[in-house]
Amino acid sequence: MSSPHLPSPPNGDEHDSLLKLLTLLTRSVERELNQQLRAVLHDSLRPAHYSVFRYLDPAGSRVGDLAEAAGMTQQSMGELIAHLERFGYVERRVDPSDRRARLVVATDTGRSALATAAEQIADIEDRLGAQLGTGGLLQLRSLLARAHMVLTPEPANAPPAHHHRNRW
């Protein structure tokens, strides 16, 4: 049953699962972002590559950490990183804390791509805000963050999660 304060979804069943709606929204945002980025960056970029940038620490990240954060194998993440390396978006450097390990870091080209992506994401969010209203967009953001916290409890003695500045 619909809430008396909210209209039914125009193109879907009001009984669609939250997972389905979140997936549809994610795909829509990534499709829009991908069209915009491919027009100004490299046309071989795909949404799968965004998982590298989405979780990449500005100081650099290990492949295993990126793979774990993205929910994929190290081999799959390594292939995405190799592709981005070929186009100059990232490079691998020796990890100063463990010289046997390598860190993936954004190059100047990669940092420029991140800035372009942040602009495009802001544009997408502005368009959403125009339809949902500023309060609606803020409420959506707040509810999504709260839902994440509900489903991702942190152990009592865990340090606070490190949040990267990347908007993707």
Briefly note the structural class of the backbone: mainly alpha
Strand tally: 2
Portion in helices: 55-70%
Average pLDDT reading: 86
N- to C-terminal distance: 34 Å
N-to-C SSE string, H for helix and E for strand: HHHHEEHH
In one word, what is the shape? globular
Strand content: 5-15%
Which consecutive residue ranges, at least 5 long each, have pLDDT under 50? none
In this structure, how is the largest beta sheet organized?
2 strands, antiparallel
Task: Describe how the helices and strands are arranged.
Elements: H1 18-40, H2 47-55, H3 63-70, H4 74-86, E1 90-95, E2 98-106, H5 108-132, H6 134-151
Helix pairs in contact: 1-5, 2-4, 3-4, 5-6
Describe the structure.
This protein has 168 residues and is mainly alpha-helical. It has six helices and two strands; from the N terminus they run ααααββαα. Strands 1-2 form a two-stranded antiparallel ribbon. Strand 1 and strand 2 form a beta hairpin. The chain starts with 17 loop residues before the first helix and ends in a 17-residue tail after the last helix.
Tags for this model:
168 residues; two-stranded antiparallel ribbon; 6 helices; globular
In short:
The protein has helices spanning 18-40, 47-55, 63-70, 74-86, 108-132, 134-151; strands spanning 90-95, 98-106.
